[in-house]
From TrEMBL:
The keyword Lipoprotein does not apply. Pfam families: Aldolase. PROSITE patterns: ALDOLASE_KDPG_KHG_2. It comes from the Bacteria. The lineage of its organism: Bacteria, Bacillati, Actinomycetota, Actinomycetes, Propionibacteriales. InterPro entries: Aldlse_KDPG_KHG (IPR000887), Aldolase_TIM (IPR013785), KDPG/KHG_AS_2 (IPR031338). This is 2-dehydro-3-deoxyphosphogluconate aldolase/(4S)-4-hydroxy-2-oxoglutarate aldolase. It comes from Nocardioides marinisabuli. Pathway: Carbohydrate acid metabolism.
Length: 217
């Protein structure tokens, strides 16, 4: 058995098993809990049903608990950087966990709890370590600082790993990122800005525009 096979066999709970296919993951990093809750309906109406509530949102656990009550939504927690945060979001009903970096304690504890846990990485070395610890799906963050060619290079040498580029992805760049073959793309700040500046109808339209790109890939 090769080392690569051993790593693949060690993969723990994987977010790919929960996703319906290539997806847009809405990263809710809002200034208020109410804004995060209110954004869920227009996102869902526009076709985005995978939501990541970051721990930077006030009362993030409460937001997760409220949104998780909708069976049509797949609700997870983002920006989880400590095991204390991990315990809190899992108790609130988070179905997956995302970290901005490779925190080994969070990754190991999340997978041990039976929850898909997605660490953040930038380098091949970090990918190798994350895979060795059981990660099957990995967040490329901040994606816009390294670009689509970087994701393609990582995909070429780690073809059995799922990647989620996050950071700077919007309606103008999503097609290029999807063309590199990720399992999902994370879209964040543009969603809140659209909702706050233009309202629910504009957010629903943006969600539909983003989702339409999935059908082309």
């Amino acid at each position: 058995m090769t080392a690569t096979t051993e790593i693949a066999n060690a993969t723990g709970p994987d977010l790919r098993t929960l996703l319906p296919g290539p997806s847009v993951l809405a990263v809710l990093r809002t200034r208020t809990a109410r804004t995060a809750v209110e954004m869920a309906a227009p996102l869902k109406a526009g076709g985005i049903t995978v939501l990541e509530v970051t721990t930077t949102v006030p009362d993030a656990a409460g937001v997760i608990r409220e949104l998780a009550g909708d069976p049509e939504l797949l609700v997870g927690a983002g920006t989880v950087t400590t095991t204390a945060q991990l315990d809190e979001v899992l108790a609130a009903g988070s179905r997956f966990v995302v970290s901005p970096g490779l925190d080994e304690d969070v990754l190991v504890a999340g997978l041990a709890a039976g929850v898909p846990t997605v660490p953040g990485v930038l380098t091949p070395t970090e990918v190798i370590r994350a895979r060795a610890l059981g990660a099957g799906t990995i967040k490329l963050f901040p994606a816009d600082t390294v670009g689509i060619a970087h994701l393609r290079a990582l995909q070429s040498v780690f073809p059995d790993t799922g990647f989620i580029p996050t950071g700077g992805v919007d309606a103008t760049s999503i097609a290029g990122w999807l063309g590199a073959g990720p399992v999902a793309v994370g879209v964040g700040s543009v969603l809140e800005k659209t909702y706050v500046d233009h309202g629910a109808a504009a957010l629903e339209a943006l969600a539909a525009e983003l989702v339409a790109h999935l059908e082309k890939h």
